[in-house]
Amino acid sequence: FLEISPSAKKGTVVGSIDLKRLTSKDSPEASLILGTIPKAHRGIVFVDEINRIADTSPEIVDLLLDVMGTKPGRIQIEEAGLPITEIPVQVSVWSASNPDEEPGPLEDIRRQLSDRFDFTVNVERPKNTRVIKEIISSNISFDDNISTTQKTMQFVEAQNTVEHFEPTEDIKTILSSMYVDYNIESLRCIEACLLGIKIRSALLRQNPSIDDIIFVTRYALRHRVDVKDLNNILKNLEQ
User: Fold this and answer.
1) Three-state secondary-structure class, residue 85
2) Exposed / middle / buried, residue 122 (Cβ in 10 Å: 0-12, 13-18, 19+)
3) Global confidence as pTM
């Protein structure tokens, strides 16, 4: 679990040549210093204030597009006079931003990058006194009735069984019609919906249903379509 901050530079994110080894008097050799993304292989990269990064650091956004564009993604380390080193990277990219502050929502700044995220979740102001007390005392709990160990076991079991919960042809038809009828730009939203439906079904240990489509669509389309279309899509699915 590694983080990319808004002040990060391209060299620290992707990697660079180890000049100390290269200029060693005893045994000079070409060697790489891995950046944040390749170090996080098979883990999670958290990008804070990603809307600011998209506005001020387009070169880092291009790196994220390469990493998130395919599975596995790829990262290239380039130095003048040396061959390009390409490293396959399998990472999960999480991010946070405040769309109500400058420079605005990520989808308005770099829609191509926004589309790379499978799901978005709104984090609202806490309104429960108990929740606030847990936050300020660093005593966050998942659920009063479920321990962290039990929660972890649920996720591991879902991971091991997720491929058994393939969405039906009817569900695929509904999603395909939704894509065509509402003129959605990216097929990634349908791929995200299918993935989310499988994961939710595995967690709940039940066959995929229309309820899963409705639940997942809220998070897969919120950053891909306007509010009016999203409300119409959800209304149509509920009917």
Assistant:
1) strand
2) exposed
3) 0.83
